[in-house]
Write a structure and sequence with these properties.
Strand content: 25-35%
Radius of gyration: 19 Å
CATH architecture: 2-Layer Sandwich
Oligomer: single chain
Helix content: 25-40%
CATH superfamily: GHMP Kinase, N-terminal domain
Largest sheet: 6 strands, mixed
Number of helices: 5
CATH class: Alpha Beta
Structural class: alpha+beta
């Protein structure tokens, strides 16, 4: 929770055009991406967005496809808000915030169709590759949505499909085949503070915001939207965020190489 006085200071600061951490309203924090950080995973990445830090691991296995998509692989996204990453997070079953984080990241990946799931079919109706994307927070200082999407894509881009022998995964054999990817996807998250909308909110700003919007973008096209918070946005604000997200996506895509 955050006190009324602190919340007022945050909103008053935004009104001046300079946020409490010294950034401008439309300025992202520095981004650092490192891949190959988990040796036992098919692919992995660690993302630092300012002081926020997440680690993403990819595991793959063979399973049955969904009955309505018998020739497509399966994508499963999970998120854990670890107790060490923020005081308000506790061990136990996934919290609503963790479920929302997983849903936002999954939607950006799924709706962008960045993974060609049809190429992950082994035997129609019987066997397909299943991709498990697991996100863990190391330090949650705001906007783990965008950090999570960056980490998920970076991990997917470096993942290798395990060797399959007679329908069984052989994890001892050296995997060489990459996932079938088409394009790149990133997201941009905005928070409404008073009558201003800031990008890449830190945790104190998230606790003071009226509403939040995360916009997924693939190669210059908006592919997903996820709203959070109790407040709302008017048409003008939405149009402004759409335009800003397309601008930011260009810089975010460059961080992926």
């Amino acid at each position: 929770m955050i006190g009324d006085l602190t919340k007022k200071n945050i909103i008053d600061s935004v009104k001046t055009g300079v946020r409490i951490d010294g950034r401008k309203i439309d300025e992202f924090r520095p981004i650092k991406i490192e891949t190959g950080v988990v040796t036992k995973a098919e692919g992995s990445a660690m993302v630092e967005l300012g002081k926020s830090k997440v680690i993403v691991g990819i595991k793959m296995g063979i399973g049955e496809p969904f009955s309505d998509r018998p020739d497509q692989g399966v994508l499963m996204t999970n998120a854990e808000l670890t107790a060490m990453s923020a005081n308000e997070f506790e061990p136990g079953p996934p919290s609503p915030d963790a479920i929302e984080l997983a849903r936002v990241i999954d939607r950006a990946i799924r709706e962008s169709k960045v993974i060609d799931l049809e190429k992950l079919c082994v035997k129609k109706g019987e066997q397909v590759w299943m991709i498990f994307v697991d996100i863990y927070t190391i330090n949650a200082d705001g906007n783990i949505f965008d950090a999570g999407v960056l980490g998920a894509f970076a991990a997917l881009a470096t993942a290798k499909i395990p060797v399959l022998k007679d329908g069984v995964v052989d994890r001892e054999a050296a995997a060489k085949k990459s996932l079938p990817l088409d394009g790149k996807v990133v997201s941009t998250t905005f928070a409404k503070l008073g009558d201003k909308i800031v990008v890449d909110p830190i945790r104190k700003e998230e606790l003071s915001m009226e509403a939040r919007l995360t916009i997924g973008v693939k190669d210059g096209n908006i592919v997903s939207l996820q709203k959070g918070g109790e407040g709302g946005f008017n048409k003008k604000e939405l149009e402004e965020m759409f335009e800003r997200s397309l601008k930011h996506s260009k810089a975010l895509l460059k961080t992926l190489g």
